[in-house]
Predict the structure of Branched-chain-amino-acid aminotransferase.
Amino acid sequence: MDTLTDIAVQKAEQSRLPEVDLDNPGFGKVFTDHMLEMEYKNGEWKQPVIKPYGPIQITPALSTLHYGQSVFEGTKAYYIDGKTVNLFRPEKNYERMANSCERLCIPKIDRETFLEGIRKLVKLDHKWVPEKDGNSLYIRPFACAWDTQVAAKVSDTYRFYIILSPVGSYYDAPVRLITSQNYVRAVEGGFGEAKTAGNYAASFYPARKAQQMGFSQVLWLDAFDHEYVEEVGTMNIFFLIDDVLITPPLGGTILPGVTRDSVLKLARSWDMDVEERKIGMTEVMEAARSGKLQEVFGAGTAAVISPVKEIRHHGELITIHEDGRGPVGQKLYDTIYGIQRGKLEDRFNWTHSIEVA
Ligand code: COI
């Protein structure tokens, strides 16, 4: 496919920014003045257009509503100063979206269109990038089936959108997790590694049960033994046991997180002992009982580095951190967020600056 970097812009007549409190935006509740839209029909993606953010017209027979043939991404833009905004590793989001598209039979979006679409949209709406420490502009690209037909089949038409939302932290308090022996998030051969709506929809019922029991989320275990740790659904998971940083390996059932990858690269660059390997709950609980479980935290674009306060497994509750992150989680958060905000040296060339003025 040809590179489609020519993006037409229709500007909103009036900005809604004066109505928004950028210091307290919540998460994913308010959206900026513009969005990017691109249509796929007759076997090709058409020219993208940036237009005023607003409702889109669909029919009740829209195939996405019935069969969930849809994929999405999450990345962020960070305030540097009045002239510059940073993106963080957006090419990794492109790679993951391309893989998710492949798995969901959605025609691949051109790389430059995806990256240039983000850059152009963020530049146009840069005044929405929050300056407050901890806040950022969440970028949500997504693609979905657009056929008007209730047959369960691969769609012939699609839409791709990018929308932007100023956000604060995803978790306001340290996370409390519970494992499940009855429900699983993904199974080998399924689509656990794709960022697709169905993975989230399937997790809501068990997550609601967990919340009714006072927990924030389910800590997902493998589908066969209900023993090996997978991820949290909203973030990947890390354990610090006896000074070794351990995270489950990517194997098709776990989302390949950009923050996960950044944590691994940073920890290795600090000469920490790092292991990507299967980790069972028996090991986690034993480490907690013997005092060797030093830290547990989740890593994700929305979650950044979120400390896990407690885990309940088979009726036994372990408490890891009473409040806040442990020293390693805190160092990772400070380093990743410091690089994102342009306050620390970017040794890995992770950030892409956008000149906005
Ligand atoms: C992200 O971290 O970007 C996600 O998509 C997670 C979602 C729960 C907001």
About this structure: The two ends are 33 Å apart (CA to CA).
